[in-house]
Sequence to fold (380 residues):
Amino acid sequence: MIQRSSSLYRLVQSLRFGSSSQLGSYACYSSHATRLSPPCDGEDEYANMDWDNLGFGMTPTDYMYMVKCSKDGSFETGQLTSYGNLELSPSAGVLNYGQGLYEGTKAYRKEDGRLLLFRPDQNAIRMKMGADRMCMPCPSIDQFVDAVKQIAVANKRWVPPPGKGTLYIRPLLIGSGPILGLAPAPEYTFLVYASPVGNYFKEGLAPLNLYIEEEFHRASRGGAGGVKSITNYAPVLKAIARAKSRGFSDVLYLDSVNKKYIEEVSSCNIFLVKGNVISTPAANGTILQGVTRRSIIEIARDNGYQVEERAIQVDELKVADEVFCTGTAVGVAPVGNITYQGTRVEYKMRNGSVAEKLYAILEGIKTGVIEDKKGWITEI
Fold:
């Protein structure tokens, strides 16, 4: 298996020869922040970072983007400002009722210094879907993508060298206005910040060992599990902490009704491989429709695999040839074993696995090594 992201870069390289206006009284910039213009073309030197040892942690960069929703429900022109804290009313909707959404995407640096974004329009579309579910106004797709572009360019010196990591970009939509009774907030703030990151899991690209959780559930029918609401994540922390204390990488959740169908891992989707068939749980309202998930499905079909989106019983894990997870943060992560009711199922790790092949193609497209024939890449 690929051991480091730099090794992946060498692998995908080889494929080219083969086949804000003023904020109001309830949410504003920090007192030391000033509005700024994007850096000049010459300001693209690297930040002082140990690029060989990046983890998935928060490293403050230079700039963030902010804009506030006007009273008529439309967002004004956003502004770049220096990265800093926010001021919120104690009764802000996001603090009291969890009215918030977030997205995650990445910027990649090519050898010639140009920056690439992977399908940011899909993140914008998903935020609009989530905003509708959470009774929130939302920036347009064009404004969302433009904000992501601005943050990537403004923080260019924080984009890791090719093969060393990525600039993780976090768009965030929150109910920033004050509200005491349970109701939508009277105003909203859209902001975007970024951080250079390496691998999401501490194991790097080593196989994951997952634990199937039976006591706690990530989502239920009729809830918000199918959108990227901030309320989906804190409830899984207890299950994750318990699993990690036992030596597991993460938790795989079952459906909350029958408790026999797999759904997703805490922060990523899951796939099973059996022969030429790749199966993944259907996104039926309790499962997040991941951008990486959708991309892997399309890539797999293009490469001759039969892909099924369906209900998958937990017992099917016992007979799968391999299992892998997908997500913006994790990319494509192979699973080495899964433990359920005291029984561990092991999966043989081998060169040329389906996960490795799909990962190489996906990362090749993302980094510009493989020609993008689908219009997925936005070049800055």
Notes: The radius of gyration is 21 Å. The first strand starts at residue 27 and ends at 29. The CA atoms of residues 88 and 138 lie 19 Å apart. The helical segments are 5-14, 93-97, 120-133, 141-154, 237-245, 291-302, 354-366.
